[in-house]
Amino acid sequence: MKRLVFSAAVIATLAAVASPAMAESGDWLVRLRAIDVMPNESATISAIGGDVDISDQIVPELDITYFVQDNWAVELILGVTPHDVQAVGTSAGDIDLGDVTLLPPTLTLQYHFNPDGQMRPYLGAGVNYTHFFNENLPGGSALTSISYDNSFGLAAQAGIDFALQDEWFLNVDVKYIDINTDVLIDGAIAASVDIDPLVLGVGFGRRF
């Protein structure tokens, strides 16, 4: 996360000397970000009790924004995040559950407050669908199977674009995504897991 904060500071400094390009209805804005996915995890686990620990992950993210009006836009956010998972504090102790990969496409409706300015803050809200795949238990584990149900949830977003020369932008973005899944371990142990990550992103984009 320190690397993302440092990058945000560099972005603000560069933007201070750049010239703006106006965003208009019908424009497309494509961004590539580095994101830090930080789960706010919790779980209810049947039979053995305990909680869950899910690793943070830094990954690339692609988003595509279309301006339906000068101030209003819709954004599709795409990325893939692998996470290590562990059940902690159970009656059987801490249990390594291996890793799982999340594909969480998210669609938000955004309001851009200053679409033709140097600094362009925005707020967004929308929906998320998360697909879980590549569930891998650790080698040598006594467990034989684990499965995750896919998730539907809400998403909230805030960010700012810094206009550079020509059609280029620098971006800082934060999202909160509601991701909940039911997990079944060895066909017998059920867990209701809230992942609910905070996602911090820094990147650049181009307007078309």
Automatic annotation (TrEMBL):
SUPFAM superfamilies recorded: OMPA-like
Family annotation (InterPro entries): OMP/PagP_B-barrel, OMPW
Cellular-component GO terms for this entry: outer membrane
Organism: Maricaulis salignorans
Pfam families attached to this UniProt entry: OmpW
Signal peptide: 1-23
Family label: Belongs to the OmpW/AlkL family.
Gene3D superfamilies in the record: 2.40.160.20
GO BP: any one term: transmembrane transport
Protein name: Outer membrane protein
Swiss-Prot/TrEMBL keywords: Signal
